[in-house]
Design brief:
BirA Bifunctional Protein, domain 2, 2 domains, 7-stranded mixed β-sheet, 3-stranded antiparallel β-sheet, 11 helices, 10 strands, binds 3,4-dihydroxyphenylalanine
């Protein structure tokens, strides 16, 4: 009897030694400890045929073996679940010492950065910012702006017309003066930044598409002094409180009188440098008091109201401020160039 138990123990031990996988181990458990057909269950059943004394001794031996089998299977089970966990950890591991991946961040275009600064200044001076169409009729482009029928700006050599239509790409943001006055009644203050288009041959200082900002104020008793004060305040906020302006008499069909505005060079302060080409002054744009015909075109009575307007180009200003020697850089969309501005 006990020899048989010893034999079973030896069998079990040699079987345990061959187990290499978790499913082997499960099969071993079923074979030895299975409730119905397991070896240990069968062994227990033999006890019934024994005499009470013998049964006690033999029962003890079977129990000892069963305990040994259970312990061995538990050890195996623990080993396999530890191995499974280790394998899982290895595949899911995170190396917290690895350097992070940089998320590429976009940049605002230098023209956008400048436009935003200019918009902020105008908003702080009580101006509304307005956006308008880039394709315009002759009325907005020319007629309402008092531009005569024979004016060279109307020529197809200067303006991009849309074939077969009374439409053209706007060549100046001054068109926005008309929209602004049609939309609201004076008193009004509007600043309108946007793109304009001219049939220019591209070079370091020209591009067929560029940016302007138009300013317009209409109220009672508006004078040239109001225009000067406004432009002066604007350049001081943009370039610093020491900035000066000067007005040079000029001609624009939509203003009377008209003037071109220069501001003292932001780099040298007026003594002359490479940026201002030694003159100490930089051209800012055109300005003037709104021509009575322009007011009439939008049914505003020039006897009652007057206004001033100004237009400035953003591209050359942007190029000067960022030290660019060619404005075409602004439109080539070379990310290596654009990334440098923020
Ligand atoms: N529109 C003019 C241009 O593109 C600039 C300009 C001049 C705008 C005088 C104005 C102005 O508002 O009053 O050259």
């Amino acid at each position: 009897m006990s020899d048989r138990i010893a034999q079973l123990r030896a069998d079990f031990e040699s079987e345990v030694a061959t187990i290499t996988t978790e499913s082997d181990s499960t099969a071993l458990r079923d074979r030895w400890l299975g409730r119905k057909n397991g070896i240990m269950t069968a062994e227990m059943k033999t006890l019934g045929a024994l005499a009470p004394e013998e049964r006690k001794v033999q029962g003890q031996k079977i129990n000892d073996l069963k305990a040994q089998v259970e312990a061995a299977l538990e050890t195996l089970q623990a080993r396999f679940s530890a191995e499974r966990e280790a394998a899982q950890l290895a595949t899911e591991s995170i190396d917290v010492t690895l350097p992070g991946r940089r998320i590429p961040a976009g940049h605002l275009h230098p023209i956008t950065l400048l436009r935003q600064r200019i918009e902020d200044i105008f908003v702080s001076m009580g101006y509304e910012i307005e956006d308008g169409p880039e394709i315009e009729t002759n009325f907005y482009n020319f007629d309402a702006l008092n531009i005569p029928a024979n004016h060279p700006a109307r020529s197809p050599q200067d303006t991009f017309y849309i074939a077969g239509a009374d439409l053209a790409l706007r060549s100046q943001t001054s068109t926005m003066q008309i929209h602004a006055m049609q939309k609201r009644r004076p008193p009004l203050r509007v600043a309108a930044p946007g793109r304009v288009f001219r049939r220019d041959t591209p070079d370091a200082t020209h591009n067929p598409m560029f940016y302007q900002v138009e300013g317009l104020l209409v109220d009672r008793n508006v004078t040239l002094g109001d225009l000067k004060g406004t432009v002066e305040e604007f350049v001081r906020r943009l370039f610093g409180p020491q900035t000066k302006i000067r007005f040079r008499p000029s001609y624009f069909p939509f203003t009377e009188p008209s003037a071109e505005v220069d501001y003292s060079c932001f780099k040298c302060g007026g003594t002359g440098c490479r940026i201002c080409k030694g003159s100490g002054w930089i051209e800012m744009g055109g300005s003037g008091l709104v021509h009575p015909n322009v007011l009439r075109a939008v049914d505003i009575d020039p006897q009652e109201f007057s206004g001033f307007a100004f237009g400035l180009g953003l591209d050359r200003l942007c190029a000067l401020m960022y030290g660019l020697d060619d404005i075409r850089l602004l439109y080539e969309n070379d990310a290596r160039f654009l990334e440098q501005f923020f």
